[in-house]
Amino acid sequence: MAVPVLDPPLDRPVPAVTPRRRPVRWPGAALAVPAALAVLLLVVATAAPLLAPHGAADGSLTGRLLGPGAPGHPLGTDGQGRDLLSRLLLGARPSLVGGLLPVLAATVLGTALGIAAGLGGRATEQALLRSLDVLYAFPGILLAIAVATVLTPGLTATVLSLSVVLTPAVTRVAHTEVRRIRAAEYLEAARVSGAGRGAVAVRQVLPVVAPVVLAYASSLVGLAVVYAAGLSFLGLGVAPPAPEWGAMLDELRPALLTRPELAVLPALAILAVSVVFNALGEALRRRVGVREELR
Amino acid sequence: MSAATAPPVRRPAGARVSARALGEGGIGRFLLRRLGLAVPTLLGVTAVVYATVALVPGDPVSVFLGPGAPAEARAALAERLGLDEPLPVRYLTWLGHAATGDLGVSVAGQRPVTELLAPALGQTLLLTGAAFVLVLVAGVLLGAAGATRPESPLGRLCGALSTLSISAPQYSVALLLIAVFAVKLRWFPAGGTHSAFGAGGPGDLLSHLVLPAVAAALVPLGLTARVFRAALASVLAGELADALRARGLGRLAVWRHCAHNASPALLTIAGLQLAYLLEGVVFVETLFAWPGLGRLLYDALAARDLPLVQGGVLVVAVAFVGINILVDTAHAWIDPRVRG
Predict the structure, then answer these.
(1) Backbone angles phi, psi at A291, to 5 degrees
(2) Which of A126, B118, B199, B276 is deepest in the core (most CB within 10 A)?
């Protein structure tokens, strides 16, 4: 399974009371550097239309496959003479959205399902976990492919299919965390003082589960960006002529043997984003104290 | 303590824990139980795979007859294709055929899907096997080097290398490898399994295997290194290592004992990576023109050849479940605590 599942260390003490706010600790370089780079990426993606020197669709029959450093085209042009720097900049937005939105959806849905499974009684728990086992039986990208085939290619297909892939993993993490605390006395105390199920879930359980789930979810963003571009590369996600890194990868493939320095550009962009978000996720996970489990 | 006299213990949910509930079960019982648990999972898998094709927009009758066909002709064809049956019945019929090895006929190839899948599966196993060797060797070396001196520059470098390796998407790596080692340096061929001209033979195959195997191996390799490093570092920092040192064992001997204790974690993660390799091949095989399952799936997707997509996904998912069972069983075999 490609989606790694994290379990909290079992020796972590069960909080005796609802945790209070801890004093702010300043992040070290391991967290600050990838965080700053991630913010920079988001800014570039948002401001891309202002930064791009050319339009995404401005082609030219004479200026095809120009090498990097060509006049007016610092990174060269693609097979239709379109400026690659502009397309990479403009492609950042769909590429990042394709990675971030599914993680967001999976975080919300997975947390809700995980808390429901943990607090909802044995029958609900078993039903939910066994259905998730089925989704777990697929390698991640294959499940995404299977779901995306049903949908019309586009960003919506990417977001929907990746949400399906990521939700089971988040649910497991949330459920493990709920199971760890569900016998705690402060939950009992809340129930005895008349709090309903929903109130216990939102006010007592969610604050404990949220940091762990968020740290885990942040480590999924890199993976999701890679999957999203992969789906476009396979022709299931964002389709040409829209600028998107995975789709550009496929478009530039014919130039691989003649102009390899152009064909690797979108590959490098995806690699860079993946490294930034994975480093960020790892640093956040260490800070929250979630260790990586085998599966 | 035999199972009969064991006091009844309420177990929390979860397959891993319930495996412990076997008591002093043998490895055979463990495997049987694990296989039993896989049956509903596999049924669910087939249902998901079937549903993906059943839900694809577009009506096969209209495709065959055109939109203006008379109602009687439509009804007759629907009956012949079995489309007049309700969805659950159609699913059961398909399941019965799939169980006997009949996965339908490829739309684009006009050949039985199984005939196309079988040779592709062989090629994929060759590629994933080669990649798995890389994962094991390099993952263990990288993890061991990182764990032995975690705070030294070498240890930090190994940690950074495994993070980089984990983050490297197979298609990016594949393209970079082709650009550098096939196009610029011309050390290895850019794709295929054999050269069109030349001697052929195992050496030729091997040189075609190097780049795709590296591209497929990087992510699993990084994960293996990271997990083995964490497991080994915790054993090296624990009481076992202290006790061994107190008895006067040399550094190497201490390290050897600790590595042995960290090996179940290595086995589990490496086994899971074997399954993960099946996922990466979709991209690697496509870019390297390797005639395996991944490439077949890519072509089938491009041609919207749904029976072939369905069959390919099913084969990979079944292999995935099977590998997971084998890994769990091997883990239980090495580490009896897992089975009770």
Answers:
(1) -95, 155
(2) B276
